[in-house]
Amino acid sequence: MRTEFDRNAYKRTIDSLVSAFETDAQRGLSDGEAKARLAQFGSNELRQHPRPGFWALLWDQFNNYLVIILIAAALISLALGEYVDSLAIMIIVALNAVIGVVQESKAEQALEALQKMSAPHAEVMRDGSIVVIPGREIVPGDIVILEAGNFVPADLRLIESVNLKIEEASLTGESVPVEKNAALVLDDEVALGDRRNLAFMGTLITYGRARGLVVATGMNTEIGLIAEMIQSFEAEETPLQRNLAHLGRILGSACLVICALVFLYGLFRDTHLAVAFQGDLVGYFQNEKKDIINLFMTAVSLAIAAVPEGLPAIVTICLALGMQRMIRQNALIRKLPAVETLGCATVVCSDKTGTLTQNEMTVVEGFSGGRRFRISGEGYAPFGAFSNDAGVFEATGDPDVAALLVGGLACNDAWLEAQTAQESSAAWRIIGDPTEGALVVAAAKAGHSRDAVAARLPRVQEIPFDSERKRMSTIHRVAAASPMPVGDAPYLAIVKGAPDVVLDLCTRALVDGVAVPLTETLREDIRAGNHAMACRALRVLAVASRPLAELPASPTPETLENDLVFIGLLGMIDPARPEVVEALQVAHRAGLKCVMVTGDYKDTAEAIARDIGMLTPGGIVLTGAEIEKLDDATLAAKAADLQVCCRVSPQHKTRIVDAFKANGHVVAMTGDGVNDAPALKRANIGVAMGITGTDVAKQTADMVLTDDNFASIIAAIRQGRIIYSNIRKFVYFLLACNIGEILIIFGAMLFGLPIPLRPVQLLWLNLVSDGAPALALGMEKGDPDIMEQPPRPPGEPVINRNMAFGIAVVGLVDTIAVLTVFTLALGRYPDHLAAVQTIAFMTLCISELLRALTARSETHSILSIGWSSNRWMLWALAGSLLLVLIVVYVPFLQPVFDTVPPGWSDWLLMTPFFFASPIAMELVKLHFRRA
User: What NCBIfam families has UniProt attached to this entry (predicted)?
Assistant: First the structure.
């Protein structure tokens, strides 16, 4: 019966699959059958869920409580005749909506990048002939022809393979090309990266050739499953979005309550109201209509004062400035709210290859002549030193080491290429297999170049690497003297491969430049050297040789690969980045849990994690197979001690993210491949690699690392904490200002005083005078101990208990100071209310500007952070003070703002009260430092 797809094709024989898909392994499908299946199963392409339209995105931007309050504030300002303020608020709202729509429209481009990975054309068998068809027309049951350089056009069960290697890093996380074998039939459940008889859509053939049976197309492929997972995850609100929404609801409710209380209290305070209840109520309202309207307008103005109108704009600007700072930290933010979300991250799930490590296989150790030696140096740069227990030595002076390096270079197809003239690791690259490239670099460190070795030992024949033989052999003509054990032979065979396999083919060993019989003792020493390297998760290769008296007519493994001279072992690893250890220490001090999530093997992952300090005593290591056996609750329970996850699939990565989120964590997940995309989207913060990352990962992620460096993640988290801290600072500052204004008006009404501040003065304070210092607070560099603090709880509101206490104290002190100076000024100018209100206005303005200096840290004294460390604050204070003086001293503005220029005696009256709230805030900080 015809099958649409087979998820367990790796467990089945070729014959059973050919029968199930009703095809012919040699002739393929007929053209008519292929068309019928295309109509039945659909095109071999990734399908996209419908996206929300422009109007839906726009509505989402306005469907916010705080935005609705701001719109209401704009309409009320318009009703009050404050056209400039109304226009400013509406511009703020429109700007936020535009930014939101643009961000949302760019956020879902991952599927487009996935679709680009599909092969545009493919060679298939149709009616016994090879034809080239568009990749989208491939159907289940097609027989596909694959060669080096091809992209795999669908998920295939290999039915024939010759020296086949496929680059699957983007899908499985495997750092080197995977050797494939069509003859394998796997019995057990295995990870995606271990299904060596399958080829997956979107992966690249790097070596060899093959034929494969299409077992899945389109959305049924492994890459299709990833596309479905990406589209199925709903975007979650960031902690800041939730907190600001909560704050908006509180402020909106407070506005309504304040407006009602002030208006009702004003009515009841009026002695005429008592008369109204005893007499004609309608007549009362007709007689006092103007006063009631003025009272209502005052209450409404006070309610507007309760809303920090500039808050959304300042938050947006602060996040945008944070994005610019993060670019300098090698972190490119794709989604604006992610800037802040980084600040409350509690778990960092990091890929290994290229993020924790350098993604450059490097030979670090060798074994020759019965002795172990070490090789220093970084990456692919051909600079390093050779050392042993006796110290540094010249590799060219040791015949055994020299023969080992030359042998590894000669039996090798990789090239080392200089990209720039600079002598740094980044200036060099390897062309070819990374493992072979490591051998080339090791030889170059000893001064052996490929051209020089090729001149002395030109290659004349070879037997390519075979996954079953686990070795490669080359035959060279001896054209000049070399450190290899050649004797008088005109030809030399060199064999490179797995140590246990090569050692079994050897009868002699090179010791001090002489081939000696391979005794059992020497054989055990070699095995012990191999075991020691393997225990440190080094990938070990053995090199052996055999002098040949004549050139074989047709070399075969059976005739050539025997009676070999064992030369030595070379151990390599993708080394950890040198800065990662320090970054992990910073992360641990900051209370961050760091977890390695990789597609590599357990031994390698454990060794790297232990070496850099990520795997600690008591830490749990889980493989993908082990994760598969755990239910969600058990996995979540183990998450507290989980430190390394290896050989994982895309589904495992999303389950790991969900396990941490189930425990209340905010998760940052890194990745570079297609396989990482679902987890990147599922995480609170998806972090893609900019250098090695696929377009799919980059389009899905919230943040892209331009240097693929784990240390940049920690630097970005630090910046995220600073940004959130700055947001708290200006929320603290603005709300303390607004609460003070509310209490001043309400206190004056309570004590029977005239209203100290005009509505237009309140609006000027909120939109102009306070705005610039609040924006400058967003430019703070952060407290020096910000990475010594634990992550903040994600559910913690912006206004926590400490901030609420500080706001109350500062607001109360502002009220006492302003009402006191207002009362004193009333005694000085009993018949000139505008002059008295100007003095109150000036006192409050300058007091708030001075308090902005102390608001630069919630805990540290202004004396410890310095007066001038934020030059933006100095400019903001100077600009705001100038604006205050302009509305007071410029004649044509005085009628607009109901101001009267104060004299020198008025300044002497006000000056002591300027410092009341700044001193109060410093005392509050002192209290919390002691607590």
Answer: ATPase_P-type
